[in-house]
Write a structure and sequence with these properties.
This protein is α/β, with parallel strands linked by helices. The protein has helices spanning 20-30, 39-44, 51-58, 77-83, 92-109, 126-147, 160-166, 181-186, 192-199, 233-242, 259-269; strands at residues 8-11, 34-38, 61-66, 113-116, 150-154, 175-179, 203-208, 210-212, 222-224, 249-251.
Length: 275
Amino acid sequence: MTLSADKLAFCSWSTQPNCPKCVVNNASAIGLSRVQLHLDPVALDPKWADCKAAFDDAGLEVVSGMYTPLGEDYTTPATIKATGGIVPDEHWEQNLENFRKVAEAAKSFGLEHVSFHAGFIPEDDPAVFGKIVDRLKQLAAILRETAGARLLLETGQETGESLAAFIPHVADDGIGINFDPANMILYGMGDPIEALDRLMPFVRQVHLKDATPPAEPGAWGSEVAVGTGAVNWDAFFNVLKGAGYDGDMVIEREAGDDRIGDIKQAAAYAPQFFA
């Protein structure tokens, strides 16, 4: 199966929009008419209430959604480990309430997938491990019953080996993977190509993002423009092609002074590997 530029999209949050029209304008500037939409503003902020009509009028297709749990602090790898995803108890009830609204937003767009960072999954703490499994199953059930959609776990906070061992605990509940190769590098979690190959049976969407490794343990790597970092894109796309992948390829950019320009560059760069 051949990959296609028709499957390219971009992450709405990468362009830091503060209104639906901003997303439309950014899509026009980038030259892509497909977007993964941050659903929290749609679900929780009244000024986004008319976004579907605005996107439909502009011919902008929403291919998937993204959800952000409360209280996440990405200052350092240590702070996000403590605050990330659905692990902290202090935000769980509010996260659950917000996610119900996010699921309704996903339904309004007819989405098949909603991705998010679940948080760090411990291998040596059965109580926390079990809590994450239970909470993921709750979210997956809400999304499935409300919108008929699948919950996708964003990669990066575990090694490919650890995530491959974890995912069977929840895969039967309609949970898959959104694979982001740069996150593996940013967190120092191993070779993203080996991880992608191991996780492909569960991959339902991929992010196109690039990075360089951390200079020392406990620090962040650096996100860079696609094609200028440590991701081996030729090998990455070969794994996708070998597995017959035909899902969306969503460009994400969360750093830099010219995000729109970098997304345009990524959209022009990636198709050389599709044939």
